[in-house]
Amino acid sequence: MTKPQNYINGKWVDGSLGKLDMLNPSYDTKAGEIARSGEKDIDSAVKAAREAFNGVWGKTDAANRGRMLYKVAKILEENVEELAELESKDTGKPMKQARTDATLIARYFEFYAGAADKFHGDTIPFSDDYTVYSQRVPLGVTGHIIPWNYPLQMTGRTLAPALAAGNATVFKPAEDACLAVVRAFELIHEAGFPPGAINLVTGLGTEAGGALANHPGIDHMAFTGSPEVGKIIMKNSADHIRPVLLELGGKSPQVVFKDADLDAAMPVIVNAIIQNAGQTCSAGSRLVIQEDIHDEVVEGLIKRFNKIKVGPADKDPDIGPIINKKQLERVESFVARAEKEGATILAQAEKPEGKGYFFPPTLMGKVNNDSFIAQNEVFGPVLTVIPFKDEADAIRIANDVEFGLIAAVWTKDNGRAHRVTNAINAGQVYVNGYGAGGGVELPFGGMKKSGFGREKGFEALYDVTAVKTIIINHG
Ligand code: NAD
C-alpha cells in the first residue's frame, strides 16, 4: 500500500482534510487511499519549496542537479513492474501500457539529467566597448497540476525539466488516479533531494488544485487537463502576473490519401484511438480519408474494431475500462448524440461482462465535420470517419476544429507530405506514422485551443527558465 500522505519538505505528512478513496475502474472496487489536502497543505509545500530554492537546492550546481535526476531515473527503472501494477490498477490501463508508462517516467528523469548541464545562455555581439552574455535562470517555485490519464508519464514530463533547470517544485496529481505517483515519490525520496526541492500534495481539484493555482508564492504554473479548468488556471495566473503553460485537449486528424500504404496505416490508425481507451489528449480521433479509398479502409477497420479485446486491466486486454462512471456516461452521451445527428455506428467491439466501466471501441460513419462529435473531444475510444475529395479539402477539414495538438498525414508522395504538414495547424505532425504522446525527446504542445507552451525535449527547459542579460561596459 502507498502512503495516504503528502510529501512536503522531505517528509511524509497527513493531509489537513483527511483522506480520499481511490477506485479500481476495472472492477469498481477500492484501489487505495490518498491524502485529501487544501490551502494549509499547499501553503506548507510552497513555503518549503521557497526555502529550498533560496537554500541548498538553489545553490546546487547544474551537474549535481543532473546527477540527482539520474539517481531518480535509476531507482524508478529498478521498480518499473511495481509502478506498472499500481498504475494499471488505479487507471484501468492494460499492463503492457502501464509498463510503458512506468518506463517513461524513468526516461524523462534520465533525459533531463543529461540536459541539466548542457542548457545555457549565449554571448551576444553588441559593441567593442561591451561584453554581453545571457544566462538561463530558473524561475523559482514552479506549480504543476496534471490529469489522471497518464499519471506516471506526466509526473516525469512536468517535474524533470523544472528540476533540471533548478526550480523547486510543488506538484498536484489528479484525484481520479495517482497511487503510482505517490509510490514514485516514495522512491524519489531515496535519491536524497534537499528537503523542499520536490513536494507532492494530493487532493481534489477544487481544494488542493485551486489552492495551488491561487497561491501567490509560485512563479510559474504548468497545467495539463481540460480546457475548462485551463481557463481558470490562466485567470489565476493573470491575477498573480506569472507565466502559465497549458496542455489542453485535442481533436487530432489522421489524414489518409489514396496513395498511402494502407497495410502500414491501418493498425496505427486503430491504435491511435484505442490506446488508453481513447483517453489521450493526442488520440487520433478524426479519420480524414480520401473518398476513393473510403470503402476499402472502412471495411478493413470494421474487421479490426470487431476483434479488439476489451476487459479488466490485469488481464492485459487490448483496452481497459474508462476511468470512472462520470467519464463513461460522457462517452456514451457523445455517441448517442452523434447518432441523433445522423451518424451511424459502423463497428463496435464486444462489451465484456462485469462491473468495470467499459466502453467498446466504436467506429462511426456518416460524420459531418461540423457535427458535435467531430468538433468536441470525446476522451473515449470513438473514431469518426470523414471523407474528403482532394488535398485542399483535406487541409480544410484537418484544420476545421478549435484544437491543434497533433496530426498525421499518410501518403507516399513526398511533395504532398511537405505541403500538407506545412498547412496543418498543430504542435506535432507525423508523416506515415503516429505517436499519441510518445517520444520524450520531441517537443510537444498545442496550437489554438489545445494550449500553449512546450513540454518534452530540450524545448521544455525554455518554459521553466527566464533569460537574464548581463551587459558589461569595459570602455
Ligand atoms: P481536469 O481539467 O478536470 O483536471 C485536471 C487536473 O486539474 C486535476 O489534477 C484536477 O484535480 C485539477 N483541477 C480540477 N479543477 C481545478 C481547479 N478549479 N483549480 C485547479 N485545479 C483543478 O481534466 P481531467 O478530466 O482530469 O482530464 C481530461 C482532460 O485533460 C481532457 O480534456 C484532456 O484532453 C486533457 N488532457 C490534456 C493533455 C495534454 O497534454 N494536452 C494530457 C492529458 C489530458
Bound molecules: nicotinamide-adenine-dinucleotide
CATH superfamily of the largest domain: Aldehyde Dehydrogenase, Chain A, domain 1
- The multimeric state of the shown protein is single chain
What low-confidence regions span 5 or more consecutive residues with pLDDT below 50? none
Computed Rg: 23 Å
Straight-line N-to-C gap: 66 Å
Structural category is alpha/beta
Give the CATH topology of the largest domain.
Aldehyde Dehydrogenase, Chain A, domain 1
In CATH, the architecture of the largest domain is: 3-Layer(aba) Sandwich
Mean pLDDT: 97
Number of domains: 2
How much helix, percentage-wise, in residues? Answer: 25-40%
Q: What is the 3D form?
A: globular
Main sheet characteristics = 7 strands, mixed
Describe this structure as you would to a colleague.
This protein has 475 residues and is α/β, with parallel strands linked by helices. The protein has two domains: 6-248 and 451-473, Aldehyde Dehydrogenase, Chain A, domain 1 (3-Layer(aba) Sandwich); 253-440, 3-Layer(aba) Sandwich (Aldehyde Dehydrogenase, Chain A, domain 2), CATH 3.40.309.10. It contains 15 helices and 21 strands. It is globular. Nicotinamide-adenine-dinucleotide binds at residues 145-149, 172, 174-175, 205-206, 209-210, 213, 224-226, 229, 232, 247-249, 281, 377, 379.
